[in-house]
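Subject: Isocitrate dehydrogenase [NADP] structure
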Amino acid sequence: MEIAVAKGDGIGPEIMEAVLHIFKAAGAPLNYQFVEMGKWVFDKGFGNGMTPEAKSTIEQLGILFKGPMETPKGKGVKSINVTARKTWNTYANKRTFQTLHGVNTVFSKAGIPIDLTVVRENIEDTYGGIEHQLTEDVAISRRIITRPGSEQVIRYAFEMARQKKARRVTCVHKANIMKITDGMFLNTFHKIAQQYPELTVDDIIVDDLCMKMVTRPESFDVLVLTNLQGDIVSDLCAGLIGGLGFAPSANIGDNICIFEAVHGTAPDIAGKNIANPTALLLSGIAMLQHLGLNATAAKIENALLYTLEQGFHTGDFGDKATAALNTTAFAEKIIAHFGKTPKTGAKTAVADQPIKIEVPQLQENLLLHAKEPVTKTLAGVDFFIDSTAQPGEIAALAQKYSTADLPLINISNRGTQVWPEGSKFTVLVDNYTLRFEATEGQAVTQQTIIDLYTKLANEFQITSVETLLEINGQKVYSLAQGQ
Ligand code: NAD
């Protein structure tokens, strides 16, 4: 079985070498095609951090095992890690966090077991990286949540939960504030949940989850979240089980999957052969399981768990009274423990049943679109303008263009209504939103909006325009605070 391997930057090559050495000793039936990705590839002038050969090898083989990679700072280039996940639509990021005996934490000392699986949406949200500065003082970021994107990751989470007979599947969100975006994610979750009646499902607001995660982490099992909240919550989970050195990650797509550790390149310890290879090894074990190499995965995992249980450790964790092993010696210790079984958490070996990875040759891009037809009505428009005038002055100018068909209904600043009603205590910045909205049930045309744009442009510097939609008669835009 052939897979693509990118060693990465910083500690990447050291920990990758250790892991591949363990794979070889375990007899993993894998061949590697080493591909060029990472900081030094950016430095060679490849703006996306990978060579064309690397891209085509990965698209042919369908599996990438990668070390951490550094994105050059301040050069305007996007993160290679995020680019890889997005380019190949690895829509679900699965991270598992389990109590590891030998890795002391407040929870392990208190005898509280942790067994969490975080499924984080991996493509959308603020990771679209679509940001604009609108005025001298105001910058915005677009947070994209889509129904098909949500469906893909949520369905994956449920399928995985069904397979592992999960105790509970929890959707984590902030739909009380982000009613349209997180509302779409949450509604999609509950809709798909109906197809998994055997599973216990619920949802929780992300801040409440963070508090409960610290007080009662054992009560959760599978968590499914949007991208940024998932990023933060998974680092919280890593902290619960002993830190980033123990957090594996699988980026799952329909055609291409990427396996990597959660941690970064650890530049402070790179080149010293002291890094902890456990997170990359656990990611590698997840990859072996994904490839159907369950017996090999179990052999390595049992040896790793036994090694940790026996108190062997690298410098970043473990009993300070016992000497730390370097990366190479730690890997050798795991190999020496092949065939041993840990007292707790032992994995049962099921025979290897290698799967055949077949990546389709695509002629065009797949476009995901809602299957059910909807009625869409253009109900109005929000104009964002650059101004340091007072709300009343802006209203006086804008009202000249307010019509019976498309009246100016309010003005807001940072999402808070400041006209026609407002408070003098609301602090303003140099970007206002003028909302023109048709009367209930009436539609406007694009041309009406274009004409209004032309007129308003005589009075204001327009920084952005957002149309207001009704879908199936429902307003799908937010109200200003106080509206
Ligand atoms: P980091 O994870 O590299 O390091 C944070 C701290 O954890 C450091 O003190 C480091 O020494 C320690 N650490 C991390 N991994 C370790 C290991 N395996 N063994 C022992 N100690 C370990 O995070 P950072 O310093 O914020 O980021 C450094 C670089 O890594 C940045 O360029 C960042 O963009 C990149 N990064 C890449 C990925 C990825 O490739 N998926 C993820 C995160 C960060």
